[in-house]
Design a protein that fits this description.
single chain; alpha/beta; 4-stranded mixed sheet
Length: about 450
């Protein structure tokens, strides 16, 4: 009975042929995705302690630019929904991320592995949650302001993620990259004998409507948001980048994802003009990507998030902590007292930390890796070398800003990122030498687990 191709099959063959022709001319692909975006202001309404620098002596004195939580929801052709949410904060600890994720799971049926929470690491944002608490000397009243603000950010994050999911519309999603020379290896800036690698990639996801109207841009870059250090609330240079991108493309929502910028600073700095310039440079780099040929993401989305136990080099004994609790340095004293409290409460101090590694694969075209903590540059360079510099995006500062995450190189070199910074994060000691291998091995496992075998 079947002698000629069914009309639907013929139609889909024709469609496939047209798509091939379309792609050959660099046109956008047919919409196999749905996408939705939302953003909400999270600028604190009252004066509040500012995060990132321990040297500040008073709370905020005003607002330079509004700060936001932003969310981009993506749904693949199989109906699988995942969300990238970005917060203009210096940090987010596990407890705060879990609170947001747990409510998103309950209210929107969004599994934990399908939610990325990335922070810009602005050092001109308010203190929120518990990250770096040992760095700040807050009164009870200031702590209460932070507690209320944290609750507000959690509620607004959940709301914004819900709005992005609700806004899902047919869309195309494309990936491309540019380069921008904003980041300087800050360890080399102070110690000229060090090699000082940097990652200058500017990964971009462009979300467009089926008729090619740009709806959203997700852009990554690896450098601390520390161009400014005064008492005005802002999202530092990434905030200027986002407003510049949104001004150049009216109606578009832009999201910034911090990369493995643990040992990178924008230099020179400390002048608003420079922060604006870095923002403009990133916006120019984004436009370069948008003008060029981008890779349409066509496959299905595969997601996973797991933790791996990273060891501390040394767990201090009670006697060591007793001694340190009388140290001349107030940060060392505080740190020791806090660990003694943990010891009294739990009977032990954990020798490892459950480190979060998240991997999303967009078909065969893009591997997106989101790592916890202040990840140094060696991780992104190593992972991109392994999975392809042209098709891999490595975000740091995601899901739990537990500490700096040094590489073997940084641990060997010594210095702040792998060393004394651990005190400000309240960790028992520096990480053990195996930290890089353990994390990279976990990434490898998860990439394998999510690789489409077709
Ligand atoms: Zn930092």
């Amino acid at each position: 009975m079947l002698t000629s191709p069914a009309p639907q099959r013929l139609a889909s063959c024709l469609l496939a042929a047209l798509l091939l022709v379309g792609n050959a001319f660099g046109q956008s692909p047919a919409p196999t995705w749905k996408a939705g975006v939302a953003k909400t202001v999270i600028t604190p309404k009252e004066t509040i302690w500012m995060a990132g620098f321990g040297s500040r002596e008073k709370p905020s004195e005003g607002v330079r630019q509004d700060i936001y939580v932003r969310a981009a929801a993506l749904q693949d052709a199989d109906g699988k929904t995942a969300v990238i949410a970005t917060l203009d904060l210096a940090g987010i600890e596990k407890e705060m991320a879990d609170a947001i994720a747990e409510r998103c799971g309950r209210e929107f049926n969004l599994p934990r592995d399908r939610l990325v929470l990335n922070i810009s690491h602005t050092h001109s944002g308010p203190v929120a949650g518990l990250v770096l608490m040992p760095l700040y000397d807050l009164t009870a009243q200031q702590r209460e302001v932070v507690r209320k603000y944290t609750d507000d950010v959690i509620a607004k994050s959940v709301e914004t993620i819900g709005q992005a999911i609700k806004a899902l519309q047919p869309a195309t999603v494309e990936f491309g990259q540019s380069l921008a020379g904003i980041a300087v290896n800050r360890r080399r800036a102070t110690q000229r004998s060090l090699p000082g690698p940097v990652d200058h990639d500017v990964p971009v996801l462009a979300i467009r409507t089926p008729d090619k109207k740009l709806v959203a841009v997700l852009v990554g870059y690896a450098a601390h948001a520390t161009a400014l250090n005064d008492y005005l609330i802002s999202n530092d240079w990434p905030g200027f980048a986002l407003s510049e991108i949104e001004q150049r493309h009216p109606g578009v929502t832009a999201l910034f994802l911090q990369g493995c910028g643990g040992d990178a600073n924008p230099l020179p700095r400390r002048v608003e003009k420079l922060a604006r310039m870095y923002g403009e440079i990133l916006a120019f780099a984004v436009d370069e990507v948008l003008r060029g040929r981008m890779t349409p993401l066509t496959g299905s989305l595969r997601t996973t998030l797991e933790t791996t136990e990273v060891p501390f080099h040394h767990v201090p004994t009670r006697a060591e902590l007793d001694q340190r609790s009388h140290d001349a340095n107030p940060f060392v004293r505080q740190h020791a007292k806090r660990l003694l409290e943990v010891l009294a409460r739990d009977g032990k101090i954990a020798a490892t930390y459950p480190y979060p590694v998240q991997v999303w694969q967009f078909g065969k075209e893009l591997t997106f890796i989101a790592l916890g903590g202040e990840v140094v540059v060696d991780y992104s360079l190593r992972l991109k070398a392994r999975y392809g510099f042209d098709r891999t995006w490595v975000a740091g500062y995601s899901n739990d800003i537990l500490a700096y995450i040094p590489s073997r190189r940084v641990l060997n070199e010594g210095g702040y990122e792998g060393g004394e910074s651990m005190i400000y994060f309240g960790r028992p000691s520096r990480f053990g030498a195996a930290v890089e291998e353990i994390i990279v091995e976990k990434v490898n496992d998860l990439v394998e687990q999510t690789t489409d075998i077709q």
